[in-house]
Design goal:
The model has no long low-confidence stretch (mean pLDDT 94). The chain is built from 9 helices and 7 strands; from the N terminus they run βαβαβαβαβαβααβαα. By secondary structure, it is α/β, with parallel strands linked by helices.
Length: 276
């Protein structure tokens, strides 16, 4: 018998790939995304697959909307087994030059958004005595990257949030997992990459960073491959807390554990071509 799985941010990219993979294997899909067009397109695809589903266009910052979404899903399907928080935005630029008001939005979506979704469904999962919370994080949630300070901070915060939650919900049979990709070949990075203005002391290094990042994206893990890994985490009875979807993440995290800081720093600045 299939699960009822809630996925946020499922209109495109990895979220969509995960939703369709699960749908084809007999699971029920419930989710929302800010893109009405993407939701309509996915609804047609899920209809063609023949799986039960409930999709809504909804902004992750709409707290009352999330509560209504939860109530609708539980009324329609009677249960929820897994909640996947996949909504997230990037944030790029030299820290000295970023707009901190805009940076707040990154935290609002990446951290508080995940919190709102998990908080909405935990009471039901707790009462039924089992369930799973899965958060899409990033390699930069454990390894800070230059020119991504705000995004890095939001993912470090998400990591801390989920690691803390596990101690609270585990006694009620709720498992918690983080998925930490390094690069996935989507347009996620290209949406935020922007050179600083002429005269910025960071412009040349940012240019090299962007060029290097664009090269890495071309050979990065595809959304399809990443989705298969995410689905495997959803399927596991007792998933690990930290889960990587690509070889590069595994290597970087291993080096991060065993190498002294000066060596890690040297590898990072050379790898991203930002050595002064």
């Amino acid at each position: 018998m299939g699960q009822v799985i809630v996925i946020t941010g499922l209109a495109e990219g990895m979220g969509r790939e995960v939703a369709t993979l699960l749908a084809r294997s007999g699971d029920t899909i419930a989710g929302f995304d800010i893109s009405s067009e993407g939701i309509d397109s996915l609804a047609k695809e899920l209809s063609s697959i023949g799986c039960p589903f409930h999709l809504e266009p909804l902004n992750i910052t709409d707290r009352k909307g999330i509560q209504r979404f939860r109530d609708t899903v539980l009324k329609k399907f009677g249960a929820v087994d897994t909640v996947v928080s996949n909504v997230g935005i990037g944030f790029f630029g030299p820290f000295e030059e970023i707009d901190l008001d805009k940076a707040l939005q990154c935290f609002e979506i990446n951290v508080i958004g995940a919190s709102a979704v998990f908080q909405a469904f935990i009471p039901f999962l707790r009462k039924q005595g089992h369930g799973k919370l899965v958060a899409m994080s990033s390699l930069v949630g454990r390894i800070p990257f230059p020119f991504e300070s705000i995004y890095t901070a939001s993912k470090f915060a998400l990591q801390g949030l989920v690691e803390a939650i596990q101690y609270e919900v585990r006694p009620f049979g709720i498992d918690v997992a983080l998925v930490e990709p390094a690069q996935v070949s989507t347009n996620f990075a290209s949406k935020i990459h922007q050179l600083p203005p002429e005269g910025s002391p960071y412009r040349e290094r940012v240019r090299r960073f962007i060029n290097r990042d664009n090269v890495l994206i071309k050979t990065a893990t595809t959304p399809q491959v990443a989705a298969k890994k995410i689905v495997s985490v959803i399927r596991k009875k007792n998933p690990k807390l930290h889960n990587q979807v690509d070889f590069m993440s595994t290597v970087f995290l291993a080096l991060n554990r065993i190498l002294p800081k000066f060596a890690r720093d040297m590898i990072l600045v050379n790898y991203m071509d930002i050595r002064v």
